[in-house]
Design a protein that fits this description.
The protein is of the alpha/beta class. Helices cover 32% and strands 17% of the residues. The protein has eleven helices and eleven strands. A hairpin with a 2-residue loop joins strand 8 and strand 9.
Length: 329
Amino acid sequence: MAAVPLRLMLERGGEGTLGADPDAIMRDDSRYRTEEKGGRVAVDSATSLSISASASASASAMPTNDGIVAFFGATGGSTLACLALALRAGYTCSALSRSSSRLQTLLLERNVSQSIIDTQLTITQGDIRDTESVARVLTPRSKSDTSTTTRTLQLIISGIGRPPIFSPNPLNPTFDDPTVCQDAISTILAALRTLPASSPKPVLAALSTTGISSRARDIPILMIPLYHWLLAVPHKDKLKMEALLQAEVTKPSQERVIKDFVVVRPSLLTDGARLGTNKIRVGEEVGKIATPAVGYTISREDVGGWMFDQLLDGHGRNKYEGKMVSITY
């Protein structure tokens, strides 16, 4: 693949440059703070998004699934793509979002019906740094169950991130929330500690980025200036996020609050269409052993599709637990 022009790489948005999803981005001045609202949420109009034909599985082919999948950063490209696929496949999901109507609009544009949203998705409006809001996402009531019991949380997907700000100098971007990724994971872990000790421990999957491994080079040489110079600030945040996950699973089993982690390290993200999991090259890093996949780009749609195929709908979750997984074309 030819090298990607620097300006194109930088203009792809927060998820594209940080390797994580921006529900992330919280698109106005009141970005992380909203008020809890009852009743039906009105759906706003928004720009139509494309959806891969592979996401068109019929609801009649729902898998047997008794657990909850929790999403953070759900309006960001990769995480949104995964959430839409999960809902269309029949999974019961919960999500934290600054705006319920925004998230519903984005899902409707991806051919997720209102009836599916109403019956399979619980949206909590709140702040990723607010432990109580996060805890509500982790313990939603089943919408189809009249009992007062909560369903088992089996998987958490975090795609929280923030985009760079290129004004006034596009060659010296600034970042208005340089610790958002580590803070998000810290809050999720803190919220998990508030759950009953008898609760089953979920797997926590977090979107990170290539270019930060200390074990092996996982980016093309031409990308090194971009990753190590322009993106040094968000990469520091990603490294601390990964360190928090690694530290958690080294605790004694009775003290840790997650079963394990999966860190997904996509290469530079683009807005392209989904090509399919079979077009994705996968590398792994565990401990001191690293066999990364080196490439320039991957689309947000394919990152979300890979997470769905491998962590939800396939048998890859056990395979990738405890690993840093690089994915690229």
